[in-house]
Amino acid sequence: MTYLLLMVPGMLLMAWAQWHVKGTYYRYAEVASSLGMTGAEVAQSILQNMGVNDVIVEPVPGELSDHYDPSARAVRLSEGVYGSTSLSAAAIAAHECGHVLQDVNHYFPMNIRASLVPFANFGSQFSTMIVMIGVGLASSGAALGNVVINVGIALFLAAVLFHVVTLPVEFDASRRALKIINDLGILQGDENKAAKRVLSAAAFTYVATTIYYVLQLIQLLMMRRRNANY
Ligand SMILES: [Zn+2]
After folding, report:
1. Can you give the residue range of the structural domain that contains 195?
2. Which is the most buried residue in 85, 120, 139, 206, by most CB within 10 A?
3. What is the CA radius of gyration of the chain?
4. Which are the contacts of 215, defined by CB distance < 8 A and separation ≥ 6?
5. 200: Cβ–Cβ under 8 A, 6 or more apart, which residues?
């Protein structure tokens, strides 16, 4: 019952955030910018203006699969962004360049986020299973059960932390993006407001995911309280 009370609102929030970002993305994917630059041109122009010469801009398959790969020094733009002159394309291309600027400026939260990746991946995949095993051991009276439960929760905490640290990274990339597309005149007047809407909707998906992870953590802590032998 507590599972439903906690997890169902979390899942609904995530679903709403996904629906909202897609809706906003498609809405402004239909509107061409007055300057008519493609996503690829927007990214190249921003990088050039920032004096970044060693990052390539290339297309990547998929939808909303846009990202910056720091190890490959590549801004990868999805098919709907790379060659599109829409407001959505400009906003997303600029956002990925925001991540490049973070990398160039050694933006601290980005480094923490990168170092949390392996723990977060492991934690989000296995921690619930580890806690369950711990609960099983604890209920059979094994002292080891409590230790296993705590290890599982600590791993999950790394995943939660990863999502929490993702928030400033994503918000900062969008802030940089909106400033630069305005400064360089890539978008004009109300076009900037549309870009802000697209990026705010995208940012909210990260907020929703973080809330969902925090709820899962609460769930695990409740399980621990119920089952550990203290
Ligand atoms: Zn981002």
Report:
1. 2-227
2. 120
3. 21
4. 6, 7, 9, 10
5. 174
What's the token pair of residue 147? Answer: 């230790």
What is the distance in A from the centroid of ligand 1 to the CA of 138?
Answer: 41
Assess whether pLDDT exceeds 60 at residue 171. yes
For residues 133 and 148, is the Cβ–Cβ distance under 8 A?
A: yes
Total domain count, the chain = 1
Residue type, 183: D
What residues pair up with 68 in beta bridges, in sequence order? Answer: 75
User: Edge to edge, what strands does the sheet with 56-60 contain?
Assistant: 56-60, 74-78, 67-69
Tens-digit pLDDT profile for residues 65-92: 999 999 999 999 999 999 999 999 999 9
Q: Check: CB of residue 186 under 8 Å from CB of residue 94.
A: yes
Tell me the catalytic residues.
96
Q: Mean pLDDT throughout 30-35?
A: 95
Tokens (6 digits) for 197: 């809407």
Q: Give the H/E segment covering residue 77.
A: strand 74-78
Type of residue at 68 = Y
Centroid of ligand 1 to alpha carbon of 100 (angstroms)? 10
Specify the pairing of strand 74-78 against strand 67-69.
Answer: antiparallel
Kindly provide the b/e burial profile for residues 26-44, where b requires at least 16 CB atoms within 10 angstroms of the residue's own CB.
ebbbeebbebebbbbbbbb
Separation of CA 110 and ligand 1 centre (Å): 11
Looking at every residue in the chain, the average pLDDT score rounds to 92
